[in-house]
């Protein structure tokens, strides 16, 4: 994809019009080809952009404004409907181009499988990377109903690529017993139910390391984010997730890329989920891009 031709429709508020001058690239991965319950997350990136017009450009949490960070909104990657493998290949190629240009990649999903090709691209540039994963689900299955390309297998694939000891999951409250056992036996870090306090304990261990952060919106309790494909009660509050983003921003880790996935606007007529996601994206831009 030529970045000067990448725009598609609306853009995130205060995005910079020039790719070359930008420090970061925001992009959408509109794919929900492998969902196991409710589809619709392919519409997430577009709606997150659309509701961003209602955001304040200033973050009182971080005392920064969006105009202080030059980020380019490349629009949505034109993924082929119903073709997971080709979609994965296209995402990896796109992120390869972003990294080759020296930019910070910030993706919006789409189902969580879209993170897998991003991890593959990041690992080529950062072979010593770690992953911070916030989610309701372990996502550690080898396959789902016989299909290895699944949103339920993204963290298993990533752990096998970079080493389970380099993967840190938070907020987990759902998964097969075998998934939790695999994580324990292979030295992977899983914090059940909570995010902020266990994250504070882990961040000093990752000081100085390149870290990719992936956030599934369903880490939030459905009361805070009903618009997602696989809701799961007992999650954290939006306040805690914001605090976790800010804790990472204040830490000594080197955030080299990130994504926010699984927003499915159709299941939330109030648009609470999309608006929350939009604010989270703002805080990720303002808190993490300068660390890339």
Automatic annotation (TrEMBL):
GO terms for biological process: putrescine biosynthetic process from arginine, via agmatine; spermidine biosynthetic process. Transmembrane segments: none annotated. PANTHER family: ARGINASE/AGMATINASE, GUANIDINO ACID HYDROLASE, MITOCHONDRIAL. Binds 2 manganese ions per subunit. This is Agmatinase. It comes from Peribacillus muralis. The keyword S-adenosyl-L-methionine does not apply. Keywords: Hydrolase, Manganese, Metal-binding, Polyamine biosynthesis, Putrescine biosynthesis, Spermidine biosynthesis. Catalyzes the formation of putrescine from agmatine. It comes from the Bacteria. Mn(2+) binds at residues 112, 135, 137, 139, 216, 218. Its EC number is 3.5.3.11. GO terms for molecular function: agmatinase activity; metal ion binding. Pfam families: Arginase. Pathway: Amine and polyamine biosynthesis; putrescine biosynthesis via agmatine pathway; putrescine from agmatine: step 1/1.
